[in-house]
Amino acid sequence: MTGGQFGFFGVDPWWIVIVKVLGIFVMLVLLTLFTIWWERRVVSRMQHRIGPNRVGPFGLLQSLMDGVKLALKEEIVPKGVHLAVYWIAPIISATAAFIAFAVIPFGPVVNLFGQQTPLQLTDFPVSVLYILAIASIGIYGIVLAGWASGSIYPLLGGLRSSAQMISYEIAMGLSFVAVFLYAGSMSTSEIVNAQEPVWFAVILLPSFLIYVTAMVGETNRAPFDLPEAEGELVGGFHTEYSSMKFALFFLAEYINMVTVSALATTLFLGGWRAPWPISLWDAANTGYWPLLWWLLKVQIFIFIFIWLRATLPRLRYDQFMKFGWKILIPASIAWIMIVATARVLRNDVQFTSTQILLVGGITIIVLLLGSWLLQSRADRMSALQEEADAEIQARAFDAMAGGYPVPPMPGQQVNLPTRRASSSVTTQEAIDG
Amino acid sequence: MTGYEVNAGEAVVFWVCAVLSVLGAIGLITSRKAVHSALWMALTMINLAILYIANNAPFLGMVQIIVYTGAVMMLFLFVLMVVGVDSSDSLIETIRGQRVLSILLGLLLIVILVWGLGSALSGLPSVGLDAANRLDGGNVQSIARLIFTDYLLVFEVTSALLITAAMGAMVLAHREHWQPKPTQAELSIARFKGDEHPGNRPNPGIYARHNAVDTPALLPDGTPTQASIPGALRSRADVQPVEIEDGRAIQEGDSQ
Q1: Which three-class secondary structure state does DSSP give residue A25?
Q2: CB under 8 Å to A301, separation ≥6 — which residues?
Q3: Which stretches does the entry tag as region Disordered (chain B) (predicted)?
Q4: Per-residue pLDDT tens for A102-137?
Q5: Of A166, A410, A419, the CB nearest to B235
Q6: In this predicted model, what pLDDT tens digit does every residue of B49-106 receive, in sequence order?
Q7: Cα–Cα distances in angstroms (integers) from residue A163 to residues A27, A318, B162, B171, in the given order
């Protein structure tokens, strides 16, 4: 992919690529350690506690110590696990979490050890789809962990996670569509460039809200952390994992949080571009400054994650699914229709104000007529339903209606002989005997 | 780039991915466990996607992973897990001669593909992948133009077919409600209006000398309570007698 617009990508010397890969890896591990500490401190503050404050300044080294302890712990592999899959699952999870970051832009073209290179490992025309693809591979880790553990709680956790992923990835993918339509590209660096005057979070606010909701579901975080709901499923998919393998799942969860936050920043908050008052300063979008703006924006999302966790109770599973399928997805589709129509009107058709008013007026009349028709139909249906209910209630239950044994209709009473009488007799006999 | 030049990187990618995808296909049909088969198939699909990307078709490659690996295989896994962890498939052939027939038909398919595709494509002039992608300004744009102009009818008919299949599945799985589903509030009100005690039933063995299921719980005043024994045991009269302090064995219901 060395087309004109991707001129800066794919031409780095090999050692620059290695420097970037190493930089991203180290940054992700450090961000994980920081996020765990930050989460514990913020949640503590919200619960009137202090949180970890012993190891290092402000307790900053606490998660490092915990990580070392976790790695040195005894590893318990239960009997009855499917060993190969049990081993592969955490590796898939952690690997997918790391490699999704390859297409996230951190900054513009900078001077890195004398080389002019963008602060982004690589980019290609469909890099946002690449992140979706890697995310869908990452969930395999969770599902397989649930299956391979050979135990019922992890299995249920894995099942929930696969259902959750399929549902929320649709809403997530649909929220990208409006961004693609406005940016005219699916490459992350071009989407950042397309937000030059105004961020997509402003002009595509519904898409932004849908994405932020779906990203919480996609990362299995509270209030959508049903795959590992500890009150119902012990630890969910990682119940049977310990030591380093558990640490890999832990790492993957926090990196995924950073990834979806970085994607939200890239797609909706202008990526590495400086926010408004700072952007008045000419040098704000040059050199290494954008790295700072990027990091701040990502931290805002991570703070929202933590805030949600400290504030909201976990959803019930059926409500969670209903929310995804009956609210998020239809809302996304309706919004995409509006955005696409607006794009076509702006690009291809020149309207006079009379025409716009005419179209708007006809639309409103059609909507009013439609809602009136629907309402009267609903009234008629509920009247019919009431009649039918009354008829059923009035009819006595006939267990052999039409010559076949049939169950009672709702509302009909069944008079069956109870066991109470015979039971009490036998109980008496048991006492005597 | 004209036609058949292959550079070293391309050759390495091809030989690694091709071998792995064939390995995945063999693993798919030889594994005993359905979940292992699904995993082998996922491996094949991911390697095919990498081959597409190596052939300058990044959109197709990504969609291959998102749709096939991410959605279709995930649904397969979902169903396999719902069916059960350890259910193994029966390996008895239900159709006589199935194996021979499938091998023959498979060979036939290979012949048709090799011969048909080979003869169909051999005379075509090749412009090179870069030139083909550049026609409409990029890979994604070229695919979009083809789908929404030359192949619009096929595309729409396929989507209609898929939507029909989805609707069919919904109709088959649909259960008609006779009356509106009670809400959480209605259920709660009904629970408190009913005859039963709205709280949890006492567990077997609470305040008792034994925690077996058939030992009735004792109420704070020392009398055994019937509610703590599961209904099945009660109706079979499988209830242990309880001794109270004066040495007399009593049973639930005696002193109430």
Answers
A1: helix
A2: A212, A260, A261, A264, A265
A3: 215-234
A4: 888 888 877 777 777 788 888 888 889 998 889 888
A5: A419
A6: 999 888 888 888 888 888 888 888 888 888 877 776 555 556 666 777 888 888 999 9
A7: 32, 11, 20, 20
**If we measure between CA atoms, which residue out of A294, A275, A310 comes closest to residue A31?**
A294
Encoded amino acid at B178, one letter: W
A154 vs B contacts (CB less than 8 Å): none
| CB spacing of A136 vs B253 below 8 angstroms | no
Closest alpha carbon to B126 in B55, B187, B225: B55
Distance (Å, whole) CA B250 – CA B131: 94
Beta carbons within 10 angstroms of residue A203's beta carbon: 15
Contact residues, chain A to chain B, C-beta under 8 Å: 1, 3, 82, 85, 124-126, 129-130, 132-133, 135-137, 139-140, 143-144, 146-147, 150, 155, 158-159, 162-163, 165-166, 169, 173, 186, 389, 409-411, 419, 423-424, 426-431
pLDDT in tens, A61-88: 888 998 899 889 888 888 888 888 888 9
Q: How far apart are CA B27 and CA A98, in angstroms?
A: 28
pLDDT digits (tens, 9 = 90+) for B185-240: 888 888 888 787 777 777 766 666 677 778 888 777 777 777 788 778 887 878 87
What CA–CA distance (Å, rounded) separates B6 from A320?
A: 51
Pick the residue of B1, B62, B69, B214 with the most A CBs within 10 A to test the interface with A by mutation.
B62
Q: Which residues of A touch B77 (CB under 8 A)?
A: 143, 147, 162
Contact between B179 and A132 using a beta-carbon 8 Å cutoff: no
Residue whose token pair is 């008919």: B157
Which residue is closest to A419 within chain B, CA to CA? B235
* Interface mutation vs chain B, best among A140, A144, A386, most B CBs within 10 Å: A140
List the single residue in A with minimal CA-CA distance to B183: A319
- CA distance to partner chain A, nearest, from residue B32 (Å): 13
pLDDT in tens, chain A (433 residues): 334 456 667 677 788 888 888 988 999 989 989 999 999 999 999 988 988 888 888 888 888 998 899 889 888 888 888 888 888 999 999 999 899 888 888 888 777 777 777 888 888 888 899 988 898 888 888 888 888 888 888 888 888 887 887 788 888 888 899 888 888 888 888 888 888 878 888 888 888 888 998 988 888 887 888 777 777 777 778 888 888 888 898 888 899 999 999 999 988 888 888 887 777 777 777 778 888 888 999 999 999 999 998 898 888 888 888 888 888 888 888 888 888 888 887 777 666 667 767 777 788 888 888 888 888 888 888 888 888 777 766 767 777 777 788 877 766 666 665 555 444 444 444 444 4
How long, in residues, is chain A?
433
What structural domains and CATH numbers belong to chain B? 11-85 (1.20.120.1200), 128-176 (no CATH), 194-250 (no CATH)
Q: What's the ipTM?
A: 0.72
What ranges in A117-151 are assigned the alpha helix state H? 127-148
